[in-house]
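Technical note accompanying the year-one report. For the benefit of new consortium partners, we illustrate the data format agreed upon in the data management plan: each record pairs a sequence with a C-alpha cell string. No post-processing was applied to the example shown here.
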Amino acid sequence: MENDYQVASISEDCVSEINELQNKLNKETDKDIVLIAYQSKTDD
C-alpha cells in the first residue's frame, strides 16, 4: 500500500467531517480510533 498511495489532499470541510466521525467512533467504542485519508498516487 505505501507504494501506491499518499496522504490525500482534501478540503478543510472534509477534514472536519473525518474528525467528527473519528470522535463519534471514539465515544461509541471507548477506543482511540484514528482515521487517515489516502489517495492513489495516480489520482490528480
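Partners are asked to follow this layout when depositing records. The chain has one domain: 5-40.
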